[in-house]
Amino acid sequence: MRSNHNLFDNQKSTIKNQKSKIKMAIKFQYNKTSLQGIEKQLKMRVRALPTIKNKESALRMEVKRAKEEAAELRKKLEAQIGVYDKMAALWNEFEPTLIAVQDVQLSVKKLAGIRVPSLDEVVFSTRPFSLFNSPKWYLDGIRLLQTLAQIGIEYEFCLMKINRLEYARKKTTQKVNLFEKVQIPGFEDAIRKIKRFMEDEENLSKSSQKIMKSKQASYG
Q: What's the Cα-to-Cα distance from 50 to each of 53, 56, 71, 170, 187, rounded to whole Å?
């Protein structure tokens, strides 16, 4: 339990340190020009935050779908490997050079605004062989190897897609947290400080003017 508390405390202190560093990075002056600049920065982030949150939600959904797709492909691959293993005694008769992957045709598509690789087609080449002189199961063997290769390549591309989407999702989540938990509160805090300073300065100026007027009246 103590180690869990220590971990939680470390995480809290890390977040506090990050917040303090960002707040210190917000440079401003106690004047109207600086106030207008910071208000502009704040509006930009407040306006952008819902869009970034929507993107994060969309990416989360795409990652979930891609993981489900990968799990399904994994099941299919394991099933085909099981069929392959059942024919283990026959593969010694098979000519490995009969079939090869000739080409893998790719394209790029966008998911939640992120470019990810997409597998269009796996092209196989089959070397001619004699149906009369070869074992009868050769055709089934070729089809099985094609299916294994096809599913295996699809699975690898799916993992690549997951990695791209997961990376983009993490970066988007970081941006949401930066805006929502650090920068927006930091700008709001800076605006409050500037306004408070300007109000105090104005009140001080008014008080000084009253004192000056009262002194002038007494001398008059």
A: 5, 10, 32, 17, 18
Position 65 scores a pLDDT of 96
Q: Are 62 and 112 a contacting pair, CB within 8 Å?
A: yes
Q: What are the contacts of 119-125 at 24+ separation with CB within 8 A?
A: 119/153, 119/154, 119/157, 122/149, 122/150, 122/153, 124/99, 124/100, 124/149, 125/99, 125/100, 125/101
User: 150: closest CA among 114, 101, 216, 86?
Assistant: 101
Give the lowest-confidence range in 19-28, 31-40, 42-51. Answer: 19-28
The DSSP secondary-structure symbol of 208 reads: H
Q: What is the pTM of this model?
A: 0.74
